[in-house]
Write a structure and sequence with these properties.
Layout lengths: L2 H23 L9 H5 L13 E4 L3 E4 L4 H7 L11 H10 L5 H14 L4 H8 L7 H11 L5 H7 L8 H28 L13 H8 L6 H11 L8 H11 L4 H12 L7 H16 L7 H13 L17 H12 L7 H20 L10 H10 L8 H22 L12 H9 L6
Antiparallel strand pairs: 1-2
Helix pairs in contact: 6-7, 6-9, 7-9, 7-13, 8-9, 9-19, 10-11, 11-19, 12-13, 12-19, 13-19, 14-18, 15-17, 16-18, 17-18
Bound molecules: carboxymethyldethia coenzyme *A.
């Protein structure tokens, strides 16, 4: 069955479950909120729902119930590759079903039609100062696409219908995931390659096409596939996914929603951490290792210098995870099995930081999770393949994250989730409830 038909069936089968939960069990209590959660970033409060992915603090992410190795194992692979195509993963995220090769082929063919980016998007990005951060360019590019939003068109048509609204979100979402790699490649060539643009390869899948559009080698095709899949989704509470969900909950179309999500991803505590990791590591080399090989002692000193300066160690810690991020492990395994990369001095240094930083962070005693997250390992792979402009790394994250955010808001509309509107309280209220030992209901 074609992707949209499968999705339609899944959404229609799922709807009664959501309706029943709200109607019959709407008042069942599933969580409580403490003052530190209220002031401390709503950490751990169970008030979002998604079936696209789930993040276990110990185990890490599962996409549609599958761990990262299980996901890579289950999905049909790109021709001549050990990695699945991004297109097959898109089918899987949306439907929860592993597609057949024929279903993947259909998505690959449709993706090619959808990936054409209108000229006005490139013009809007070109009009920006060339030294704008590439995340600004990406966010502007996505927002520029809004003009032709099918969801906005449907809403404005006077025929808006809650039951079919998801179909228009799906159309925009699919266009967006197909176009964002092309926009990202355009930004790369504009900013770092003197605007020498490379054409779309109509014979290639998303990963291969991206590699070719940024002038990369054949091996990089798997890097792109792996990278976009690993960064796609991390349940709903992270800043980029949550922002996208929140903005779309006002029935803002997918372009408004994802442009906003990207602005959140651009924060150094979230997606920008991958650029910060490279910045930290290169500065470490320049400062401490001009004439000597890096050692654990030097790494320890540099980590303490960072912490004593009141800064965070980028790439370490997590709001939910309490173990090494399996997205880190997956990328590390890629490095270890890639000849050249496993002996690369920067990879060796990142490996040394991995051996050292958790102990330092434990001794420092603040971070609840001293282990590396996805961002600690991703930059070194890009660096090895010659993509050394590290302010571009968050753009790569943004291309991958689009898959999860767009799958999520398609389902948000399919299940008719409400506009998001949590309740605020005031400090005097908190002080009163604190003295009374809790709020009296
Ligand atoms: N280095 C130094 N201090 C850290 C730290 C780190 N890597 N991680 C957490 N801490 C500190 C926090 O800043 C906080 O300090 P204060 O009490 O002074 O405010 C304290 O430890 C407790 O924080 P936490 O509960 O362990 O972590 P949070 O849930 O508040 O924050 C995160 C999570 C990721 C923002 C934080 O670990 C961090 O800043 N890490 C470095 C940046 C990073 O790698 N971000 C990328 C995360 C993955 C992604 O989204 O891409």
């Amino acid at each position: 069955m074609a992707l949209k038909e499968t999705l339609k069936q899944k959404i229609e089968e799922h709807r009664p479950r959501t309706t029943r939960l709200v109607k019959e069990f709407g008042k069942v209590i599933i969580d409580q909120v403490t003052i530190d959660q209220c002031i401390g970033g709503a950490r751990d409060i169970r008030c979002l729902v998604t079936d696209i992915s789930y993040l276990d603090p110990q185990e890490g992410i599962r996409f549609r119930g599958k761990t990262i190795p299980e996901t890579f194992e289950a999905l049909p692979k790109a021709a001549g590759s050990d990695y699945p195509t991004v297109e097959s993963f898109w089918y899987f995220l949306l439907t929860g079903e592993v597609p057949t090769q024929a279903q993947v082929d259909e998505v690959v063919a449709e993706w090619k039609v959808r990936q054409e980016v209108p000229q006005y998007v490139f013009d809007a990005i070109r009009a920006l100062p060339r030294d704008s951060h590439p995340m600004v360019m990406l966010s502007v590019g996505i927002l520029a696409l809004q003009k032709d939003s099918k969801f906005a068109g449907f809403y404005n048509s006077g025929k808006f219908n809650k039951m079919t609204a998801w179909e228009y979100v799906y159309e925009d979402a699919y266009d967006l995931v197909a176009r964002i790699p092309v926009i990202a490649a355009f930004i790369y060539n504009l900013k770092y390659k003197g605007d020498k643009q490379l054409p779309i390869d109509p014979s290639a899948d998303c990963g291969a096409n991206f590699a070719r559009m940024i002038g990369q080698c054949k091996e990089y095709e798997d890097v792109a596939r792996m990278y976009f899949i690993l960064h796609s989704d991390h349940e709903s509470g992270n800043v980029s996914a949550h922002t996208t969900h929140l903005v779309h909950s006002a029935l803002s179309d997918p372009y408004y929603a994802y442009s906003a999500g990207l602005n959140g991803l651009a924060g150094p505590l979230h997606g920008l951490a991958n650029q910060e990791v490279l910045d930290w590591t290169i500065k470490f080399q320049e400062k401490y290792c001009k004439d000597v090989e890096p050692t654990k002692e030097l790494v320890t000193k540099a980590l303490w210098d960072t912490l004593n300066a009141g800064q965070v160690v980028p790439g370490y810690g997590h709001a939910v995870l309490r173990k090494t991020d399996p997205r880190y492990t997956s990328q590390r395994e890629f490095c270890l099995k890639t000849p050249g990369l496993k002996d690369d001095p920067l990879f060796k240094l990142v490996a040394m930081i991995f051996e050292t930083a958790p102990g330092v962070l434990m001794e420092h005693g603040k971070a609840k999770n001293p282990w590396p997250n996805v961002d600690a390992q991703s930059g070194v792979i890009q660096w090895y393949y010659g993509l050394r402009e590290w302010d571009f790394y968050t753009v790569l994250f943004g291309v991958g994250r689009a898959l999860g955010c767009m799958a999520n808001i398609t389902w948000d509309r399919g299940l008719g989730y409400a506009i998001e509107r949590p309740k605020s309280v005031t400090t005097p209220m908190l002080e009163k409830w604190a003295e009374e030992g809790g709020r009296k209901f």
